[in-house]
Amino acid sequence: MEKDLKISRRTFLAAAGGTIISIGLPGTFIRLAEAEQRVLAASIRPDGKPRLPPGQAAIEKIQDMGGTPGTATVANWRLSIDGEVERPIVLSFQELLNLEQVQITCDIHCVTGWTLLDSKWSGVRLSTIMDIVKPRKNGKFIIFKAAAGYTSNIPISEINKDNVILAHSFFGDKLPKENGAPVRALVPDRYFYKSAKWLEAIKISSRDEPGYWERQG
Questions:
Q1: What pLDDT sits at residue 167?
Q2: Comparing 8-17, 109-118, 203-212, which segment has the lowest mean pLDDT?
Q3: Within 10 Å of residue 179's Cβ, how many Cβ atoms?
Q4: Of 167 and 215, which is predicted with more confidence?
Q5: Domain topology for 67-215
Q6: Distance from C-alpha of 10 to C-alpha of 108, rounded to nearest angstrom
Q7: ∠ CA(163), CA(164), CA(166), 5° rounding?
Q8: Distances (CA, A) of 3 to 70, 80, 146, 201
Q9: How far apart are the first and last CA of the chain?
Q10: Please, where are the H alpha helices in 99-211?
Q11: Per-domain residue ranges for the chain?
């Protein structure tokens, strides 16, 4: 979910009985067949958690999830990383590409009730960037800053996970504008509103700073 998303989980689930799901955003979500849903609901991840969490519906692909797009392009995009770090930096898109690149396959989940399984992303691990800026010991939280004032917050311990990346590609193609181009955060083990689109800055903070949705209560 992003900035202009105004739909409750109950509303989404009430509409999820058919094959085509409309959730009040541009386009529709195509839901997997009921037999597939049941198989997935019974699947267990290596960490012992269900692959399809209770109340989630697996979909075939994600659509535009709303929000206010940024104006940056590959040519002029810049990412500042500062706060409680020893070496604050500003990266261009090309400098991001010059860092070690990874490809990951992961499941992503939205609080509105949809899950996209085996999504494929390319980008740079957040830990790679943290190795460069060197967070101070009192740096406890990562604050993603995105277009139109959108922010999301995660504990700095998330950088220890190999699947937390700054993504610039989706299923082998450049990240679509509606899904956060040129670069978005990707934090698969948390609900998707934490994976800020149209990323502009990262701040390492000594204290937790509530993100957009937390500030809305």
A1: 98
A2: 8-17
A3: 19
A4: 167
A5: Sulfite Oxidase; Chain A, domain 2 (3.90.420)
A6: 19
A7: 120
A8: 12, 22, 10, 17
A9: 15
A10: 126-133
A11: 67-215
Measure the CA–CA gap between 190 and 137, rounded to whole angstroms: 24
Report the distance separating Cα 97 and Cα 168, nearest Å: 9
Q: Which residues pair with 166 in a beta bridge?
A: 124, 185
Supply the pLDDT for residue 56.
Answer: 84
pLDDT of residue 41: 63
Distance CA(194)–CA(8), nearest Å, equals 17
pTM above 0.85, yes or no: no
Mean pLDDT, the chain, rounded, equals: 84
Write down the residue that tokens 């509409």 correspond to.
15
Burial class (CB in 10 A: 0-12, 13-18, 19+), 173: exposed
Q: Phi first, then psi: give them for residue 124, nearest 5 degrees.
A: -120, 130
Give the integer Cα–Cα distance in Å for 87 and 54. Answer: 43
Looking at the chain, the whole-number percentage of residues with pLDDT higher than 90 is 60
In contact, 110 and 65? CB cutoff 8 Å: yes
Burial class (CB within 10 angstroms; exposed 0-12, middle 13-18, buried 19+) of 143: buried
Gyration radius (Cα) of the chain, Å: 17
H/E element holding 93? helix 93-98
- Give CA angle at 120 (64, 163), nearest 5°: 105
3-state DSSP assignment of residue 29: strand
What's the pLDDT score for residue 205? 98
Q: Tens digit of pLDDT for each residue in 11-68?
A: 333 333 434 444 333 345 566 666 676 676 667 777 787 888 888 888 888 767 678 9
